[in-house]
Amino acid sequence: MPRKSSGGWFLRRPARARPARSAPAPVKQAPPPVPAPSSGGSVLGSIGSTIAEGMAFGGGSAVAHRAVDAVMGPRTIRHETVPAAAPEPAATASSNSDACGMHYKAFQDCINSSGSDISKCQFYMDMLSSCRKSSGLVA
């Protein structure tokens, strides 16, 4: 007996009527949050609580410092003082004058850096001499 063909896979079957949907069920909302129970304490009670908490924190901090000191060794604090720079040797009055002070300093720097060869500093000596002559500080 031959089979009855349904028309093949390429032919669509007529859509069946679907039953009508009912309205969606209402979504249950979460209950409102429960208010925190009030402590009913006074201002002084909350201040006292804060003080007690601070003391506990301080005590815990002290214990932690001691534990670290036990492992790492005690902490030492050294106060170092830096000595003031030694004052420069007293110079002649002409070195302190504003007019020739910079020439005198340049001449002294040249002498200190050149060692025994003073001929390298002749230019600075000439500048210092001309400054002293023009300002009337010739000794």
Automatic annotation (TrEMBL):
Keyword Disulfide bond: yes
Residues covered by the CHCH domain: 100-133
UniProt region (Disordered), positions on chain: 1-42
InterPro entries: CHCH, CHCHD2/10-like, Cys_alpha_HP_mot_SF
Highest taxon listed in the record's lineage: Eukaryota
GO cellular component, one term: mitochondrion
Protein name: Cysteine alpha-hairpin motif superfamily
